[in-house]
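help with this.
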Amino acid sequence: MKRRLRLGVVGCGEIARYTALLARFVPRLVLSACCDHNDEKAHRFARQFRIPLAFTEVEEMLETAGLDAVYLALPHHLHAGMIRRAVEAGKAVLVEKPLTRTLSEGVALVNWLAGQNAKVGVNYQYRYDAAAYRLAQAVRAGELGRVFSIRINVAWRRDESYFRSAAWHSRLDQAGGGTLITQASHFLDLALWALGEEAQEAAGWTATPRFDVEVETLAEAILQTEGGTLISLTSTMAAAVEEAVRIEVYGERGQAVYTDLPLPRLHVRGVRLGRHPLPVAGLHALQRSLRGFVNWVLDDQPYLIPAEGALVVLAAVEAVYRSAQSGRRELVEKIRIAR
């Protein structure tokens, strides 16, 4: 058994900085290398987080850095190709959400991965949030009874620097979308995972208040799952004042409300939920996600979001975007994976 997982970071932007900071508190994880096409950025990142090797070419890092795995914090349109390159080099992969920019790319990738001996996980880190995990497990265990409604509100605020520092965020061909795919997909993933169902039909609306960009900064959606649960979703990055994320789950026996600020909390009425402890310890969801990935690669303990598990939310997101364009309800594409 390997004692430590040697991880390389690809893409030295804002989210990678958070990940590198929390990686210091993950047992058996060592940041061995980093890579960015901008040489100054790569070396500054290496100095800041005491990473011994910095690269501007991914192939060189994969061939020479002695890595076990890579963490990808890249524009969405680069995910599919970079995952393939890392897997072909014999590395495990943890990629920032979404798995890929489009569902078709994701399905093709997962089908390709079926023929590889590789572990690829997607960092939908809220599955490792203690309160969110407890909510999801309670729903899966039927403790709220049949769930008939879930309401999700994501009122976040971004300023011009969000697009200025990473211009790909503003481009539809690179990001695939805006607040829905980049931010709200975290919580839609959580809802669908909790239900253990795929979305079946979607109605959606998008707009772009406050910014002159190609992607939406406001999205509204209603989705119906295979089991008949209605999920209503509002997400924005244009809020005047940022608010806590709120997920309300209404079941036949009781209801539960998750909020993430100032700390993640779960308020329950009508029933008493089980404890449902997380499979890994830690103080922060991202830290736990990293620890879960390490345990998966080194010890073969299941990671909560393998690549195939991230397709369900991607299919739902695409249906909402199609609905926003067509002005009518859209069926969610069924996911077909080769077995």
Summary: The mean pLDDT is 97. The CA atoms of residues 33 and 53 lie 5 Å apart.
